[in-house]
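Board notes, transcribed. Complex of a protein with uracil.
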Amino acid sequence: TNLVFGDGNPNAKVMLVGEAPGADEDRLGKPFVGLSGQLLDKMFSFIGLERSKNIYISNVIPWRPPGNRTPTPQETAQCLPFIQRHIELINPELLIMVGGTSIKALTSSNDGIVRLRGKWKPYQTEGMSSPIKSTAIFHPAYLLRSPGQKRETWADLLNIKHTLAEMGHA
Ligand code: URA
């Protein structure tokens, strides 16, 4: 029904990119406002990052796929230039891919979330003059289904906090 473009501070140094809006996001036209969004907000507030202040959030796909199905590879390919340009315009110093689908769409890596979470890789699009740091975290919807993985995510969040401090954004 609605385009879900982005939310948060467009001048933020940290940008999060999820997969696609769900029903709540579609209704409100904002990313990550449903149950998994509430968990995402809570997780990032623990390390001092809030969309009202210092993070910006968007998704690879700006519309809710019918029935919440996974976006098709063709849909993802069609939307990719738009999220890449979106990242270029926000111009963050740190990109956080939220969930495996976001990694798959934004990077050409064959490695999934289990291998890439907690690691830092350079991220660059054709329109960026230099690469930025990027990492990945488990999707909060997955954490709601598998709370046992919250321990790993807590470590990933502390790693992000530490990296931001090293970059002078404590
Ligand atoms: N899941 C996502 O990946 N993005 C949203 O905006 C909401 C749920």
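The chain has a mean pLDDT of 96. The chain has seven helices and six strands.
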